[in-house]
Amino acid sequence: xxxxxxxxxxxxxxxxxxxxxxxxxxxxxxxxxxxxxxxxxxxxxxxxxxxxxxxxxxxxxxxxxxxxxxxxxx
Length: 74
Fold this sequence. Notes:
Distance between the termini: 27 Å
Radius of gyration: 12 Å
Strand order of the largest sheet: 3-2-1-7
Oligomer: single chain
Number of domains: 1
Helix content: under 10%
Number of strands: 7
Order of helices and strands: EEEEEEE
Low-confidence stretches: none
Shape: globular
């Protein structure tokens, strides 16, 4: 389902994703739009991109992306 193996990932700015399920089909995204440089109208995609990145879109601003890093943010 997703390009990331099961586990917990974070971006440098603090958004998180949990991938679980037999085939990686359960995905929970916590998108920190403020820290990622977006606005409250930005919407994150539910699944990582093919490159394993968080991608978000907004009608008011350009889209954005951030690389997922393995493990929970310390």
